[in-house]
Structures are given as C-alpha cells and as structure tokens.
Amino acid sequence: MFSTALTWSDLAFLAQGAGMTLAVTAVSVAAGTVLGIFFGMIRVELGPYWSAPLTFADRGRAFLRAAPRPEGHSARRPRSR
Questions:
Q1: Using one digit for the tens of pLDDT, what is the confidence trace for 53-68?
Q2: How many domains does the chain have?
Q3: Does 4 fall in a domain?
Q4: Is there a domain that residue 34 lies in?
C-alpha cells in the first residue's frame, strides 16, 4: 500500500525545491529591477518618440489588470473607516 508519511529523503527534496524557488525569485527580482531602471531611463531621457512603445506596454498592463477576477478575489482593498 501507499505510505503518506514524510521521510528524511522527502524533506531533503522539499528543501531543494524551496531553495530553487528562492533562487528563481532572486533572479526575477534582480532582472525586473534592472529592466525597470533601464526602461525608466529611456522614458525620461530619450523623449516621446522612444517612450511610445513603453506607453503602449503600460496600457496593455492596465488592460490585463482590468480582466475579470474569480468570485471572492478583489483587486481593491476594502476601505478602512
């Protein structure tokens, strides 16, 4: 039959997965920061002709954020009174 108990080898496998998750997260955050700084500098320094594609990308991101969400998931935080 099947055993659902965790063993030491299972814990090592889970730790390896957690380490990989942290590594992918660190690389993604670093790459996003570098790209954000780069595109921000393009937008500020090179003028409207070069920032037009970035404006289009920004509008696309806003469109994706406006997509319907599953019931119970709201993009807005409730107002505090």
A1: 776 666 666 666 666 6
A2: 1
A3: no
A4: yes
